[in-house]
Amino acid sequence: MKKTFISISQNDPKRRRFFRSCFLSTMLMLSAVFLCGSQFIVRGYKEKFLSLGLVDAMHNAISKNCEDQCRPEGTEALPKGIVSKTSDFVMQPLWGPRIQKKPKSSTNLLAIAVGIKQKESVNKIVKKFLSSDFIVMLFHYDGNVNGWRDLEWSGRAIHVSAMNQTKWWYAKRFLHPDIVSEYAFIFLWDEDLGIENFNIGRYLSIIRKEGLEISQPGLDPDYSEVHHDLTARDKRSEVHRKINKTIGGGRRCDENSTDPPCTGFVEMMAPVFSRASWRCVWHMIQNDLVHAWGLDFQLGYCAQGDRTKNIEIVDSEYIVHYGLPTLGGSAANKTNAEEQEQAAKNMSLPSSKQLAPSQSPPSDPRTEVRKQSFVELEIFKNRWKKAVREDTCWIDPYQKTTQQISKH
């Protein structure tokens, strides 16, 4: 049978053509299916690759756009709209309507270091500033906060207490630029100031008109402790930026002077800073140097431009600086009283029973404070010189000042 089948298929031409035709048709159909399927698969992968490329390009574009945005350090994991970069000293109620912020240009800050012994004079200062829409912050260097509770404005003030610290110590820790950025001007004042002849509204009007970044009221020379002639009130003018006279050490100040304390200078008892200048000054305050001696001679670097124009003494609105010793004063008085008491007892006792005098002078906290101030002055000057040497990218706009700083 096998031979017969083969024989028949080989001997029948029609049958051979039929099988050949079916085979070719089948192969053509399979080829067409394979070709179409291949194109579909290739097209699918091509579209996938293209879409991936577009997605990558989109991600790259978004990433580059986001890189151009300045995000505060630490907020990278947060959506931009939820980030609150600044704060203020506005106290909010525990319930009820929120207190709305006032425009930045209309709100200012008074920060003042206080002790209970100067309560009366501080009360006068604070009442005047609160009546002019100021936020008031008290730094209690003697730790006595409760002693101020009876004043009607006490609940409206911010109270911060740390024993025996200067206002510069407080300022470095509690007046960060991002915290006080809501305030147009920062008054960083001492407590021993008389303000009977000082009008806040007129003062603010003058410094805005003059475009001042750093200023202070003139000191009444008849009643004030004046350390630098530039800060004494000139009764003939509304403001002054320079003096024309010979000052300490035989130095001559004239119209051509460009260095402090002839110009571009304020003292440290009653400075007033703009928002922009304070951001600079805060960074210059050394964290461990609490007396800030030497800082006043370098404030011109924070004047947002020419210090001979942007720093000024306001004469028409002036104050009295009493120069009262506060930090360390109480301890010094106690020491002196004990010494006097011992001397009185010795006078009434026989020689054999008298108490021996101290082998060394009694410790005077005021003297120690003064010594530490001079020590910190030298440290600050040396740090400034070192910083200038090491910062090769910094250009000093006041070259002479840097060279002469050691003379002050």
The span between the termini is 129 Å
Helical content class: 40-55%
Q: Supply Rg.
A: 40 Å
Name the CATH superfamily assignment of the domain at 104-321: Spore Coat Polysaccharide Biosynthesis Protein SpsA, Chain A
Order of helices and strands: HHEHEEHEEHEEEEEHHHEHHH
Q: If classified by CATH, what would the architecture of the domain at 104-321 be?
A: Alpha-Beta Complex
Q: Kindly report the average pLDDT value.
A: 82
Shape: elongated
CATH topology of the domain at 104-321: Spore Coat Polysaccharide Biosynthesis Protein SpsA, Chain A
Assembly state (oligomeric) = single chain
Helix-strand category: alpha/beta
- Count of helical segments? 11
Major β-sheet, in short?
A: 9 strands, mixed
3D structure, described in words:
There is one protein chain. The protein is of the alpha/beta class and 408 residues long. The protein has a domain at 104-321: Spore Coat Polysaccharide Biosynthesis Protein SpsA, Chain A (Alpha-Beta Complex), CATH 3.90.550. The protein has helices spanning 2-11, 13-67, 119-130, 167-174, 200-210, 275-284, 295-298, 307-310, 329-347, 365-390, 399-404; strands spanning 108-114, 134-140, 158-161, 185-189, 193-194, 214-219, 239-240, 245-246, 252-253, 272-274, 311-321. Strands 1, 2, 3, 4, 5, 6, 7, 10 and 11 form a 9-stranded mixed sheet that branches. A two-stranded antiparallel sheet has the order 8-9. The relative contact order is 0.09. Keywords: Membrane, Transmembrane, Transmembrane helix. InterPro entries: DUF707.
